[in-house]
Automatic annotation (TrEMBL):
Quaternary structure (record): Homodimer.
Assigned protein family: Belongs to the adenylosuccinate synthetase family.
Organism: Solanum lycopersicum (Tomato)
Residues noted as binding GTP in the record, renumbered to the chain: 87-93, 115-117
E.C. number(s) listed in UniProt: 6.3.4.4
Protein name: Adenylosuccinate synthetase, chloroplastic
Cell location: Plastid, Chloroplast
Pfam family for this entry, one: Adenylsucc_synt
Textual note on the cofactor: Binds 1 Mg(2+) ion per subunit.
Residue positions binding Mg(2+): 88, 115
Residues annotated as binding IMP: 88-91, 113-116, 205, 219, 299, 314
GO BP terms, alphabetized: 'de novo' AMP biosynthetic process
GO MF term list: adenylosuccinate synthase activity; GTP binding; magnesium ion binding
Keyword Chloroplast: yes
Length: 342
């Protein structure tokens, strides 16, 4: 395994090689408008590349030679961009830069607690939470994998915002039929849970991520595929809401709430259907067709549920292992991992 770092700041790009040789990720200083935006808004950042393949030459101290550009283009067929700290390192901007060299950009874990801010060629700002950051590149297909928890009102709000600003999403976003649905009441429970913990609170984003993953793990959650079976959807949702009401005295639940949610999600189901697919099959088929795939991590390694600063962590695996479980692909196909440090 080759490991190296590339420092990005407001000065010309410099490189510093870590304990292992090779694997420098080079970027042309005039590479693109969005790369310049990345430099300006992220004054001090490092990109750490873990590579399974050697590199014949490295970028010079200005990072503008031909070998540097080839290094970006020669990233593995399946590569990942992960945060190395506690998030907010600038992963979304880097994914936006790299996306033009990939056919697919995929999210594998987390939910709307991942905030990625990117800019288009005109300098317009887009704040994304569920839609992968590759969406601004017209040739890129975006996948929301089975490991993601999906808040449909938030997803549609993002899609509407993108479409209103001239970014086409039709036929460019796929949502896993295995992804779990995050409901508004999960967000309410998140707040109730934090209040219950009092001075020992976790400090969550209160976007319902933890409660939704809890539903998934105790096996009473609802998945995107359940929207295709509206005959059983109300009963499943009733069980989920009843469980929440039994657990939290402050959570008020009654027949009217269930009826309103069912009617709401009938409409969501109709709108979501064109986006839904078996992404596990899709991803593995894409790999067999030699499509290039970039995985966009949410949060960061130090927030990993197993390897982070527990209990002050997120509820998923934003480190390398989450790529395989969150997309249903084999470990052997994962190549370069680009870790971003701020």
């Amino acid at each position: 395994m080759n490991i190296s770092t590339l420092r990005l700041d407001s000065n010309p790009i410099t490189t510093a090689t870590a304990t292992h040789r090779n694997g420098i990720l080079g970027c042309n200083g005039t590479y693109s408008y969005r790369f310049n935006q990345f430099q300006q808004r992220k004054k001090t950042a490092s990109i750490v590349v873990c590579s399974t393949k050697p590199l014949a030459s490295v970028v010079d101290h200005q990072g503008v030679n031909e070998s540097g550009l080839r290094r970006i283009e020669s990233l593995s067929q399946v590569s990942g961009v992960l945060g190395c700290q506690w998030g907010d390192e600038g992963k979304g901007k880097l994914v936006d830069i790299l996306a033009k060299h990939f056919d697919i950009v995929a999210r594998c874990q987390g939910g709307a607690n991942a905030g990625h801010t990117i800019y288009n060629s005109e300098g317009k700002k887009f704040a994304l939470h569920l839609v992968p950051s590759g969406i601004l590149n017209e040739e890129t297909l975006c996948v929301i994998g089975n490991g993601v928890v999906v808040h449909l009102p938030g997803l549609f709000k993002e899609i509407d915002g993108l479409e209103a600003n001239g970014v086409s999403c039709q036929g460019r976003i796929l949502v896993s039929d295995r992804a779990h649905l995050l409901f508004d009441f999960h967000q309410e429970i998140d707040g109730l849970r934090e209040a219950e913990l009092a001075k020992s609170f976790i400090g969550t984003t209160k976007r319902g991520i933890g409660p939704c993953y809890s539903s998934k793990v105790i096996r009473n959650g609802l998945r995107v595929s359940d929207l295709r079976h509206m005959d059983t959807f109300p009963q499943k949702l009733d069980l989920l809401l009843s469980d929440a009401a039994a657990r939290f005295p402050g959570f008020k639940y009654g027949p009217d709430m269930l009826r309103e949610e069912v009617e709401r999600y009938k409409k969501f189901a109709e709108r979501l259907e064109p986006f839904v697919t078996d992404t596990v099959h899709f991803m593995n088929d894409a790999i067999s067709q030699k499509k290039k795939i970039l995985v966009e991590g949410g949060q960061a390694t130090m927030l990993d549920i197993d390897f982070g600063t527990y209990p002050f962590v997120t509820s998923s695996s934003p480190s390398a292992g989450g790529i395989c479980t969150g997309l249903g692909i084999a470990p052997k196909v994962v190549g370069d991992l680009v870790g971003v440090v701020s």
